[in-house]
Amino acid sequence: MTFDLDNYFPERINDSPWLAAHTLDSLLQLPADHDLVLPICSLGTRFEELSELGSLVLPPLYHEALSDRLKQRILERIATCFPFHELCAARRQPHPQLRIVELPRRPPPAIAAPRILAFSVDTAVEEHGPHLPLSTDTLQSYAVLHRLAQETDGLLVGPPLEYGQLTWGLPFGYSVDLTADLLQEYVRNYANAMLEWIDPESVFVVDVHGSLVHRTAIVSGLQASGVRPFRFRWLHDPLVRFAADRGDQHAGGVETALIESINPKLVDPAHWPQGIDTLAEQQMSFATAVELTPDLAALTRYVEENSLNGIVGDIYNYRRLEASVLMSEMLDTARSDLRQLAASS
Questions:
Q1: 185: buried, middle or exposed (CB in 10 Å: 19+, 13-18, 0-12)?
Q2: What pTM, to 2 d.p., does this model score?
Q3: Strands 202-207 and 116-120
Q4: How far apart are CA 342 and CA 218, in angstroms?
Q5: Which candidate, 125, 107, 119, places its Cα nearest to that of 165?
Q6: What's the CA gap between 192 and 8, in Å, rounded?
Q7: Contact, 166 vs 211, CB < 8 A?
Q8: Calculated CA dihedral for residues 166, 172, 174, 176, nearest 10 degrees
Q9: Tens digits of residue pLDDT in 211-235
Q10: What separation in angstroms does the CA of 12 have from each of 66, 173, 198?
Q11: Domains with residue ranges and CATH for the chain
């Protein structure tokens, strides 16, 4: 068995029942009566079934990874920051409300145990500027995982875990942040549920999002779970010299180049490439974002006072990049991880 991920990952920007396949700009134009759905379902529920639950559907939460208390806390946290964080002035305007759809629990289908189960834990509901989809991080992670599956015997690409810790997206809206303790518990429960269901010999977990708090929570959750052996990889680790070292960290040149290389139809032609100068005028510098990160209220005021667009970095860095080099760096690092994982099995 393979998972129906083709029914989850988009082929074109702003053209999908999955909310995370849309840009921040397109979502800000939604009427207040638009139907936004958050599904809670069992592992193994087909994405095609979930996509029919509403006009725009968020990534699911999974029964098997939720205790009653954890579910309540996660839903309370999502209500605090989605569609807009309570600090955002945009909350004063009418906007779509989130509808929770909880499907009955059902047993997952039988599946042969793979040698390696691979999946990502990314922040799929996170604005990535006017031109990239919310799920920019997950799209990059799965471009790597699908390539690895093509060349690695016994590697099964599993469904992503789509929520995590973030800060920079919150002032702009349409971004979901789970605190570190919620993420750690959710990852632990999810890993244990996948272990019980699929019983892989080993587990490989990746992310692109890269927040240190986010990454630490993932590793802590995996360590607290029963999966052994496992490896975790921040896939942008080998790209620091192209990204953070150039002040280009979020939705800027690096991520634009990578998404364009994965599928150029996933970059909004209304903003790219002709609109690069406008994008640059409304981006936030990496240094400013780092300075303001500890104070979300101050960060939100700065974003609203300066009419910023969600890019943190330098979109002009795109002109200095070769996407094939970026992808090769991520793939080579992931291949090394798989070799080490095989040696520890």
A1: buried
A2: 0.97
A3: parallel
A4: 21
A5: 125
A6: 23
A7: yes
A8: 20
A9: 999 999 999 999 999 999 999 999 9
A10: 32, 22, 32
A11: 5-344 (3.40.50.10310)
